[in-house]
Amino acid sequence: MKRWLAMAALLSAGLAQAACGPDALGTSRSLTLKREGAAWGKAQHAALPTLQPGEIVLTFDDGPRPESTPAVLKALADHCVLATFFVNGEPLRLHPALARQMRDAGHTLGMHGFRHDHFSQLWSVSQIADLDAMTAAYREVLGAEPASWRFPFLEETPAMRAALRERGVTVMSIDAGAEDWLPDQTPQMLADKLLGQLTRSGGGIVLLHDAQDQTARAMPFLLQTLKAKGYRVVHLRWE
Q1: Facing residues of 46 across strands?
Q2: What CATH number is associated with residue 59?
Q3: In this protein, which residues make up the domain named NodB homology (predicted)?
Q4: How far apart are CA 144 and CA 147, in angstroms?
Q5: How many domains does the chain have?
Q6: pLDDT tens across 14-44, in order?
Q7: In this predicted model, what pLDDT tens digit does every residue of 64-113 receive, in sequence order?
Q8: String of DSSP letters for 99-147
Q9: Which residue range(s) make up the domain with 217?
Q10: Would you say 54 and 203 are in contact if contact means Cβ atoms under 8 Å apart?
Q11: Closest CA to 152 of 189, 176, 127
Q12: pLDDT mean across residues, the chain
């Protein structure tokens, strides 16, 4: 069943890609990772393996949020781009249909903490309890085993790193972003900040937030800008 769903998603993505015009950013290839307790992203770890200069992985945190996530999904669909969404457990349970819509569009979903807490400020037992709650919500809504995790605020802790390694869950940090959680930013401001960080990193894992209204509004412009600058999107999957 899981293999059939994966094939169906790939077929759907392929048909959508064919329907997009030459001005679309597109998804250049998929990268399938093993289910293991690895950690990637040059902000804290090694570079994601096999990524070439100019290749980027688009990732979004903090959703699903009905007020903004659908606009992000539409912009991605218009550009035939597949991304990875690191969702929180509370909104995942509140908006299960939207989360399944994200999955059914071919995007990959990972975990981002049940309540988006500062894990560095929690006792170890509370950190593991949050992981358990997040995992249960993921299984309940998506009917699958989660393979990836991004720490809220990128605040890694020894207790969580050990638990994620034991469970074979990959930690995803970042290589570049637009700092789109800061208020009152225009699409041009977000694009300039993202391009500046990508110039320094050479590409890699991009952090954005689908729960931000300003990010949702800026997505068409951001994708057009990435296309104009020659960046190529790589979509992550796990075996």
Answers
A1: 40
A2: 3.20.20.370
A3: 54-234
A4: 9
A5: 1
A6: 444 456 888 899 999 999 999 999 999 999 9
A7: 999 999 999 999 999 999 999 999 999 999 999 999 999 999 999 999 99
A8: HHHHHHTT-EEEE--SS---GGGS-HHHHHHHHHHHHHHHHHHHSS---
A9: 2-238
A10: yes
A11: 127
A12: 93
How many other CB atoms sit within 10 Å of the CB of residue 230? Answer: 7
Sequence-distant (≥ 6) Cβ neighbours of residue 74 within 8 angstroms? none
Q: How far apart, in Å, are the Cα atoms of 121 and each of 116, 152, 155, 197?
A: 12, 12, 10, 29
Q: How far apart are CA 152 and CA 42, in angstroms?
A: 17
Residue 1 has what pLDDT?
Answer: 42
- CB 37 within 8 Å of CB 165: yes
The kind and range of the H/E element at 204 are: strand 204-209
Q: Buried b vs exposed e over 73-111: b needs ≥16 C-beta within 10 Å?
A: bebbbbbbbbbbbbbbbebbbebeebbeebbebbbbbbb
The CA-based angle 82-88-91, given to 5 degrees, is: 100
Predicted confidence at residue 15, as pLDDT, reads 41
Token digits of residue 206:
């991009």
In this predicted structure, what is the pLDDT of residue 21? 82
